[in-house]
């Protein structure tokens, strides 16, 4: 009988201890809720100030902006800007040069017969630039182009009933160009020797030329002036041969240009021509090779 009484007393004490611990836990939860936000009663619902702030923030969120931020954070950092190919503060000086000459003596080609003449094309283009930022430079380019052609005889034979014969063909043209450019370099991998570049170029050109046919009383000559404005890009490849010099290969300018021409024939007749063109294809026959020095 004494064992049963003692057992009842033990369970009674344990129940009181459990209730006391439950009361302490309830007090702790209440104090925590009190620190988080005051309780507001609205009808049958209970809303805390902390939850109200959360609701306001959720309403003010823009799901489109959130998705954009998430996409931007997931984009791959290619570390292109961290790879220094040419450091800030350097000067670059260089240029391109080309010359071609031809001479024909009694040349026959398909329908072209008895061609006799000579001519040449000469072009030089120096430039200078300054690297105001790593791998980025701005500068100025100048160019001069001269084309000369003198043909004493030129015939076109399309059969017995159609023949064209021209004598004393003469053509001479001078072109002057000035360009402002912005060039960006990117190394190939982590190489310090080979790299790619792209040049954004704004060019103004002025040209004068004359062409004539015949001689004496049959002379017919035309003088013309041309103005050209062009905006384009010129991609290329550079390879350092020493620490301060590199060989560069670039492709002809791709972009948009406008040209105006005025002509006067025999000092009497006047003509006018305006052309605009967009060229966004790579021309493998307009490759330029030049040398650049970095100071």
Q: Helix proportion of residues, in percent?
A: 10-25%
- The helix tally amounts to 3
The CATH architecture of the largest domain can be named as Beta Barrel
Count of spatially separate domains: 2
What attributes characterize this protein structure?
295 residues, alpha+beta, Porin, eight-stranded antiparallel barrel, two-stranded antiparallel ribbon, 3 helices
Written overview of the protein:
- With 295 residues, the protein is α+β, with helices and mostly antiparallel strands.
- The protein has two domains: 2-74, no CATH class; 91-294, Beta Barrel (Porin), CATH 2.40.160.
- Helices cover 20% and strands 59% of the residues.
- The chain contains three helices and twelve strands; from the N terminus they run H-E-E-H-H-E-E-E-E-E-E-E-E-E-E.
- Residues 1-5 and 37-52 have low confidence and may be disordered.
Give a brief rundown of this model.
This protein has 295 residues and is an alpha+beta fold. It has helices at residues 2-36, 49-60, 63-74, and strands spanning 39-42, 45-48, 91-109, 112-133, 136-157, 163-187, 194-213, 220-240, 245-251, 254-265, 269-279, 287-294. The longest helix has 35 residues, at 2-36.
Task: Please render the helix and strand layout as text.
Layout: H1 2-36, E1 39-42, E2 45-48, H2 49-60, H3 63-74, E3 91-109, E4 112-133, E5 136-157, E6 163-187, E7 194-213, E8 220-240, E9 245-251, E10 254-265, E11 269-279, E12 287-294
Antiparallel strand pairs: 1-2, 3-4, 3-12, 4-5, 5-6, 6-7, 7-8, 8-9, 8-10, 9-12, 10-11
């Amino acid at each position: 009988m004494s064992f049963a009484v003692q057992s009842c007393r033990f369970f009674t004490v344990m129940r009181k201890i459990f209730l006391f611990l439950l009361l302490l836990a309830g007090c702790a939860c209440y104090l925590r809720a009190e620190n988080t936000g005051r309780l507001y009663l609205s009808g049958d619902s209970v809303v805390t100030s902390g939850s109200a702030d959360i609701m306001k923030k959720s309403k003010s969120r823009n799901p489109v902006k959130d998705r954009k931020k998430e996409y931007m954070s997931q984009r791959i950092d290619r570390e292109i800007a961290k790879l220094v190919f040419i450091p800030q503060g350097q000067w670059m000086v260089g240029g391109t040069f080309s010359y071609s000459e031809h001479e024909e003596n009694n040349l026959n080609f398909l329908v072209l017969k008895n061609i006799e003449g000579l001519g040449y094309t000469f072009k030089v283009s120096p430039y200078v630039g300054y690297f105001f930022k790593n791998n980025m430079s701005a500068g100025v380019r100048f160019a001069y182009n001269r084309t000369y052609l003198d043909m004493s005889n030129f015939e076109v034979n399309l059969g017995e009933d159609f023949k064209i014969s021209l004598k004393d063909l003469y053509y001479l043209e001078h072109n002057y160009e000035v360009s402002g450019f912005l060039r960006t370099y990117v190394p190939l991998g982590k190489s310090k020797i080979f790299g790619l570049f792209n040049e954004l170029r704004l060019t103004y050109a002025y040209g004068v030329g004359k062409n004539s046919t015949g001689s004496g009383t049959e002379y017919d000559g035309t003088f013309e002036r041309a103005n050209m404005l062009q905006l384009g890009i010129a991609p290329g490849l550079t390879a350092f041969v020493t620490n301060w010099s590199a060989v560069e290969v670039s492709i002809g300018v791709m972009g948009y240009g406008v040209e105006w021409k005025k002509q006067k024939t025999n000092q009497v007749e006047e003509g006018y021509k305006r052309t605009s063109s967009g060229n966004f294809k790579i021309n493998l026959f307009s490759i330029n090779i030049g040398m650049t020095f970095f100071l």
